[in-house]
Write the structure tokens for this entry.
Amino acid sequence: MSYDTDTKDQTRASWIGMRSVRASCTLIVALFASGVLVVLGATLDLAIRSHIESSSFRLAEEVASRWSPVARQGLVPRPIPAGPPVGLIQVVDVHDRVVDSSRDASATVPLSRHRPPPDARFQPYRECPPDGRCVLLQAIRLTPAADAGVVYAGIPEPELLATHQLEYAIAAGIVAVTGIAAWAAWVLVGRALRPVEAIRARISQITVSDLSLRVPEPQGDDEISRLATTANHTLGRLEGAVEQLRRFASTTSHELRTPIAGMRTQLEEALLYPDDVAAEDALRGALSTVGRLEAIVDDLLLLARLRAADPLPASRIDLGELVAAEVSARPSPVPIKVDTPAGLQILGSRIQLIRVLDNLLANAWRHAESAVTVSVGPAGDGVAVTVADDGPGIPPDQRERVFDRFVRLDDGRRRDPGGSGLGLAISRDIAHAHRGTLTVEDSPRGARFVLWLPLIGGGPATAPRT
């Protein structure tokens, strides 16, 4: 019940997170669209108003200009003929008395009391009486004289300018377009996130007990498809690592159970049959078993540190001098031929490399018939350490298997029954930690192990793990 509840909570939280991403993107699009549209709407409103106003003044100016010379000659008819859209025409004297007017214009009240100055005879005006609609006027002074009359031609302010209908229409358009943009963003983001939701749903079904599931990979080569591909590759590596750990745990349990069972048997026999079993022999046997268990545990801890710990600072090592020193420091049951020139320097951990050399030398001495050969020499952009013996050798189909944990061939078990089977596995991990390799190569006789490490400045040498 608890597991189901947790799963439902995680699903609900993921769905809320997905919706929040969708809602956030939609909100951003809506805000951006509304902001842009408001600016465009305000610009459009000003442009339309300016265009209508300038057109009205231009029409009024044309009419006023047509009647201005007629008024100067005193030939203006009564009433002044006029038609839409310029239906308001007046001729006003210097004392603001209406001399002549059109039918729609007042015969007594002038359209405006503003008089153009003598040096600027053409002037537009906006007159807004308190009880009526504003009028757009064009005033033309008949002459520059001080007592000159003025011709007024006017148009009642158009409906779009007199009311807010234009603003209401633009606002409605902004709301409509913003709504369409938000809806489109909601749909498109939802469609884009649909593969993400499918990936999330599949990942929620993957457990440690079953890593065989894979997330769906959408078609195309976009970021989501590459994410799904990378996730599947990661799941594949994780499945392989977990399976390797399971095999390792099973093998380790078996390897530890065997000496423990033997030690238990020895101790039980010593307790059940004290007269037939010497206590000292039983204790010595148990102590020997404990020693083997301790060696296995130490090797397992070293393997774990090699794979999990952070890299430690490395030092410059002359590999030829290191190999020569280790070979001379250990007594050998068979003759050793050594070829270790100096000057081949690497970057690494001296203690770890000594462990590799000890494992390779011990393995060679254990299987050699008459001699062991150790050589150091340049190989490509690195240096190779070769340890060869003249023993029975390793079959080609077993050359990779010998590096697996707890793997011991029949000849190795016969020659060293107490070994842990971890020496070569540890040696290869140390080589990989130094960005090198450890392999078994062809040899005319016996086994030939080759440790390759990058030289300083000759390859991607980095600090090893410990």
